[in-house]
Amino acid sequence: MPPRSTRPADNLDDDDYPAYTMGRAADMLGTTPAFLRALGDHRLITPLRSEGGHRRYSRYQLRIAARARELVDQGTPIEAACRIVILEDQLDEARRINEHLRAQGTEPQPKTSP
After folding, report:
1. Could you give the CA distance from residue 108 to residue 101 in angstroms, rounded to a whole number?
2. For site-directed labelling of 109, which of 34, 55, 85, 95 has its Cα 20 to 30 A away?
3. What's residue 45's pLDDT?
4. List of domains in the chain
5. What Cα–Cα distance (Å) separates residue 14 from each residue in 40, 44, 52, 77, 99?
6. Going by C-beta distance under 8 Å and a sequence separation of 6 or more, which residues neighbour residue 15?
7. For the segment 21-44, what is each residue's pLDDT rounded down to a tens digit?
């Protein structure tokens, strides 16, 4: 992880900066703090802790939590919603890597069976 800037205003553009308290995050998502704790219990998001031990969430974590909430609101059990979001995130990362390799002219080779 790159070092944090010493200028507080620089953190405003950082998607990973833990700027939101649990209460504020829950308000922004239209959910409860218990829902956010459940996402942590299922290891979807792991909030950072303030010096006082309070959970703090980043914008990236709030986007992940919002996607999980969409799935739960559609009737998906929270355990399944967390797994779906993790798989979606992994797929997005694989696509980014693939696109990067294509841009470099290095196509990934399919695996062949022995």
Report:
1. 7
2. 85
3. 94
4. 17-103 (1.10.1660.10)
5. 21, 20, 22, 31, 23
6. 58, 59, 60
7. 999 999 999 999 999 999 999 999
Task: Say how far apart CA 69 and CA 65 lie, in whole Å.
Answer: 6
Q: How far apart are CA 69 and CA 12, in angstroms?
A: 25
Least confident of 6-20, 26-40, 78-92: 6-20
Q: Is the pLDDT of residue 1 over 50?
A: no
pTM of this prediction exceeds 0.90: no
3-state helix, strand, coil in the chain (%, to 5): 55, 5, 40
Tokens standing for residue 84: 């779906």
Place of tokens 């999980």: 68
Residue 86 reports pLDDT greater than 90: yes
Question: Residue 27 is encoded by which pair of tokens?
Answer: 């308000």
